[in-house]
Specification:
328 residues, 31% helix, 23% strand
């Protein structure tokens, strides 16, 4: 699975949704790279564009109303926005897999989970139905599915939310993808199973040089499993750095707000909050989208959108904020 250069290279990507009323600017000029064998976390509040970025990379945005306004999505050097749908179907689920955020609606209710896992194996690998069933059973054991020999014959409605989540994870890793996009992969799982699943994904990453794009709200998971972090707000990446830099010396006021809202060591200490809420992507404020909520806003923040530029002593630490970008 070794590949020279970035495995995934998203360049200046904008994904908008054109409705009868207005244009919803969900993803705006996003740049993001993933190298073989690394985990990059994409973090931010709900409505920031994280899932749409992931769906764009999988070419799963419905067109219309969705539209790729500009940019490229390079996977192993090939622009996925230029390949045909039959070619994309060979890549999707095989070389690029995704754990969807909502397992309740991602499984087909009229097929057993065994049929759904083996379908992916038979579609992308040279396996007989019998071999595919053995492989499906193995992967269900890997994701800690209780009584997998029984569950493989059951339908989605017979499983709990956590079990469905494990089925989704099993389906995503069964073909050994080069890139795994994990959109809130442990949302429906209890804490002990969360740790098991994340450890499993991390082991697979190391064994197979698999890259993981981890979308999560849980900064504790980010600190433990990610190599780099991209902080997203209103469709734009506002800060990007190594996980160590983000936690030790965050630059963007939004990143600082996210970290300050984490529980503190003192039991009776009140949690800090970020005032206001994420603006609707169809009605973004002029200038920096965060400025109505920002404690450090300046006049220029309401006029101009800052670019993502180097901040601090590292070229790998970039911030889109006028505190670090001089007005030209």
């Amino acid at each position: 699975m070794n590949y020279p250069g970035p495995l995934l290279d998203i360049q200046d990507l904008s994904t908008f949704f054109h409705t009868e009323e207005n244009i919803v600017r969900s993803v705006r000029n996003v740049n993001l790279t993933l190298y073989p064998g690394e985990t990059v976390a994409l973090v931010g509040e709900s409505g920031c564009g994280k899932s749409v970025t992931a769906l764009s990379a999988m070419r799963l945005v419905p067109i219309p109303p969705g539209k790729f306004e500009n940019g490229r999505i390079l996977f192993k050097g090939e622009d996925l926005l230029q390949v045909s749908e039959p070619e994309m179907q060979k890549i999707r689920g095989n070389e690029i897999a995704m754990i969807f955020q909502e397992p309740m609606t991602s499984l087909n209710p009229i097929f057993t989970i065994g049929d759904q896992i083996t379908e992916a194996i038979c579609l992308h690998q040279d396996k007989s139905p019998e071999e595919a069933k053995i492989l499906a059973l193995e992967v269900l054991k890997k994701v800690a599915m209780p009584s997998p020999e029984q569950r493989i014959h059951q339908y989605p409605h017979e499983l709990s939310g956590g079990m469905k989540q494990r089925v989704m994870i099993a389906m995503s890793i069964v073909c050994g993808p080069s890139l795994l996009i994990a959109d809130e992969p442990t949302t429906a799982l209890d804490v002990t199973i969360q740790a098991q699943i994340l450890d499993l994904l991390d082991e697979l990453r190391k064994e197979n040089q698999m890259s993981i794009l981890l979308i999560t709200h849980n900064l504790g998971i980010v600190a433990q499993y990610a190599d780099r972090v991209a902080v997203m707000y209103s469709g734009k990446i506002v800060e990007h750095a190594s996980v160590e830099k983000i936690f030790a010396s965050p630059s963007h006021p939004y990143t600082k707000g996210l970290l300050n809202s984490l529980p503190k060591d003192k039991m009776n200490e009140e949690l800090e909050t970020i005032q206001g809420s994420v603006p609707h992507p169809a009605f973004l404020p002029k200038g920096c989208a965060f400025h109505p909520r920002c404690p450090d806003k300046m006049d220029v923040c309401a006029r101009e959108i800052p670019e993502l530029k180097n901040s601090g002593d590292s070229e790998e630490h970039r911030t889109a904020c006028w505190l670090y970008n001089e007005e030209s």
